[in-house]
Design goal:
The protein is α/β, with parallel strands linked by helices. It folds into 2 domains: 214 residues, Medium-chain alcohol dehydrogenases, catalytic domain (Quinone Oxidoreductase, Chain A, domain 1, Alpha-Beta Complex); 146 residues, NAD(P)-binding Rossmann-like Domain (Rossmann fold). It contains 12 helices and 20 strands. A hairpin with a 2-residue loop joins β17 and β18. α5 packs across α11. The longest helix is centred in the middle third of the chain and has 13 residues. The protein is globular, with a radius of gyration of 21 Å. The chain starts with a strand and ends with a strand.
Length: 401
């Protein structure tokens, strides 16, 4: 089984983090905590486990954060006990090739995508009974037993030949969905949860900051959920701006300093204080920050109107210095969004993937053009370099097995 994994090793992580700016190739050296290797094919560790063979897998910013050692060991998540080895690649489309005697949800020959395995162990994958309150509610991304370490863990990931998983960690894909649609269901689930955390209303002004794949899918979902809202996207590159317009953005902002333009678009008043300190009164009703840096959070809090909401979905597991004063003096709500799960839509509670598959089948959630590059698994270094450099025109880069 070929696979790429990240091994938790703080000395190697710190060394790689320090040297990567001057030696990018360190991530593939023995000094790095990451490895591309071939492992013995593992036996199924339990009766409710399955084995899959991958067809293709997307390259996601979450995996790149581990691979490129962008996380800070002082971040809160690093304080939690967890798995010592993370197999990279979770936007995977795969075929079931073996099932345990107790598996009831899938069978050999089914096509599946990763479900909860993308966010880590849950009460269901660890077979903990009764499940925690979050798993009971379908919010398994914030499972309170995620670090319990009960039972076996799967081997392998999407960036490789295949993997083993608990049956609760995979989702059966309908036959009429293409592999390209299927590989985008999981990131679309992240975008769906983000938008539904603070659902836009008709007539509201909505801003999506960052037009990587999550930001673009958030544009598409927000356009479906609230077609009568005014939707603005903020994109760095022309190909991202074009995609945002295709997916429903009414306006696309580019460049670096957006305060004057946002004031003009929203009717807000712009104030400039000492040291070029800028603040708006008025602004957007809801902002989805798909970058999640200190810089974007700082600005988003100042671009939201009084009583507005900023939802952060971008991955930045680092310590930040951010001005949170708009949270109190403008009563701006700041919230986070992680993964996917059970959502409520038009009075019906359902798995996020069920709703997204329905929208794809109905043609409401377009995916054409979002996969921009494909590489065979053997060219993983080229693929990762392409995905990392958006100047290549990359939106979603896919590894094919």
């Amino acid at each position: 089984m070929r696979t790429i994994y990240f091994q938790v090793n703080i000395p190697k992580a710190l060394l790689t983090k320090a040297l990567r700016p001057v030696w990018p190739g360190i991530i593939w050296s023995p000094l790095s905590p990451s490895r591309f290797t071939t492992l013995p094919e593992p036996a199924l560790p339990g009766p409710r486990w399955v084995r899959v063979r991958n067809r293709q897998c997307g390259i996601c910013a979450t995996d790149l954060t581990l691979l490129l050692v962008k996380a800070d060991p002082r971040a809160s998540v690093a304080a939690l006990p967890g798995v010592s080895r993370s197999y990279l690649g979770h936007e995977a489309v795969s075929d079931v090739v073996e099932v345990g005697a107790g598996v009831t949800s899938v069978q050999v020959g089914d096509r599946v995508i990763m479900d909860s395995r993308a966010v880590g162990p849950t009460c269901f994958s660890q077979e903990i009974a009764p499940p925690c309150r979050h798993c009971r509610a379908g919010n398994y991304a914030i499972c309170e037993n995620q670090s319990a370490g009960v039972g076996p863990a799967g081997t392998g990931g999407g960036w490789g030949d295949g993997y083993t998983a608990h049956e609760s960690e995979v989702y059966k894909v309908p036959a009429d969905l293409t592999d390209d649609q299927a590989v985008l269901v999981e990131p679309a689930g992240v975008a769906l949860r983000t938008v539904l955390r603070r659902k836009p209303q008709a007539g509201e002004r909505v801003l999506v900051v960052g037009c990587g794949i999550i930001g673009l899918l958030a544009v598409a979902v927000a356009h479906i959920v609230a077609p009568d809202a005014h939707l603005t996207a903020m994109a760095r590159y022309p190909h991202q701006a074009a995609a945002a317009r295709r997916l429903g953005a009414d306006q696309v902002l580019s460049g670096r300093d957006h305060y004057e333009e946002i004031a003009r678009l929203t009717g807000a008043r712009l104030y400039v204080g000492a040291l070029h300190n800028k603040m708006l009164l008025g602004g957007y009703d809801v902002i989805y920050d798909a970058v999640g840096s200190a810089h974007t959070i700082h600005d988003c809090l100042r671009w939201a109107r009084g009583g507005g909401t900023v939802v952060v979905v971008g991955i930045r597991p680092t310590l930040m210095t951010v001005d949170l004063s708009p949270v109190w003096h403008q009563e701006v709500t700041l919230m986070g969004s992680l993964g996917h799960g059970i959502e409520e839509w038009q009075g019906e509670r359902m798995h996020a993937f069920d709703l997204l598959v329905r929208w794809m089948q109905e043609g409401r959630l377009p995916t054409d053009g979002l996969i921009t590059h494909r590489f065979p698994l053997e060219e993983y270094k080229r693929a990762i370099a392409t995905a990392t450099d958006k100047r290549t025109g990359a939106i979603k880069v896919v590894l094919q097995v």
